[in-house]
Amino acid sequence: MGFDKIVHSKPEFYTKKLDLISAAKKFVYKLLLIDSHITRQREEIARRNREMVDKYLTGKKVLEVGCGRGGFLASLVKKNGCICHGVDISAEMIAFAKEHNPGPAYSVIDSAELPFAGNEFDFVIFTYVLHHVDELERTIAEAKRVGRHVIIYESCSFEHQPLKALSNLYWKAVDGGMWYKSLPEWKKLFGVRVIEEIKGSGLVRYGMCLFQT
Questions:
Q1: Is residue 109 a contact partner of residue 135, using CB atoms and an 8 Å limit?
Q2: pLDDT per residue as tens digits for the range 66-90
Q3: Which residues in 153-183 are b (16+ Cβ under 10 Å) and which e?
Q4: Contacts of 123 (CB under 8 A, 6+ apart)
């Protein structure tokens, strides 16, 4: 098992990783004197995302692939009345989710082989997960099969060179994943209609898409 998989399979390592990345980003933003601008941009993204979640997900049946510690799914149950199922390849993450974020159903399942019927879920969600999966195309195909809609959240690369190559090197260094794409590349890979999207700019390489499958 590689270091990336170890980190993303153990809740305590994953939490420390997120804290370290957050602290490093804040330091860089302050150094560049753009911390207030970045904060405003992140607040606007969070506001728009909350509106999207309330508009589309309230009361729906939701599957989160790569649910990790289960925090996002648990909030959907409590705040939006969703019927939720979370799957993750890590048994340790699923055990943590069951103990600390009860409400959703949780299972240890490979994202490339989802044991669910076609269109069983209103929404399938990936929260910063797709860049880590081993079998990306099969995972996307399975999500499109079992969900009427798919939502992705991703830390995206820049769209044009040389910034694209530099951003890919950055993400691989700090996050260890395999697939770092621009938002247009993610949309092309899914190849279905985009209903909503949120896109960051500058150093905030945030991307969200809601697809109709």
A1: no
A2: 999 999 999 999 999 999 999 999 9
A3: bbbbbbeeeeebeebbeebeeebbbebbbbb
A4: 56, 57, 60, 61, 62, 63, 147, 148, 149, 150, 151
Contacts of 172 (CB under 8 A, 6+ apart): 180
pLDDT for 122-165, tens place per residue? 999 999 999 999 999 999 999 999 999 999 999 888 898 998 89
- Tokens 């079992």, residue located: 146
Count CB atoms within 10 A of the CB of residue 128.
Answer: 15
Provide the residue type at 19 as one letter: D
Q: How far apart are CA 26 and CA 22, in angstroms?
A: 6
Which residues are 63's β-sheet partners? 85, 124
How far is 147 from 121, CA to CA, in rounded Å?
Answer: 5
Q: How far is CA 190 from CA 58, 83, 141, 152, 168, in A?
A: 24, 25, 8, 10, 20
Q: Which amino acid is at 111?
A: S
Give the phi and the psi of residue 199 in degrees, each rounded to 5: -130, 125
Residue 1 — pLDDT band, cuts 50, 70, 90? very low
Instruction: Taking the CA atoms of 91, 97, 103 and 104 in sequence, report the sign of the dihedral they define.
Output: negative
Task: Report phi then psi at 211, rounded to 5.
Answer: -105, 145
The structure's pTM equals 0.89
Q: How far apart are CA 177 and CA 84, in angstroms?
A: 26
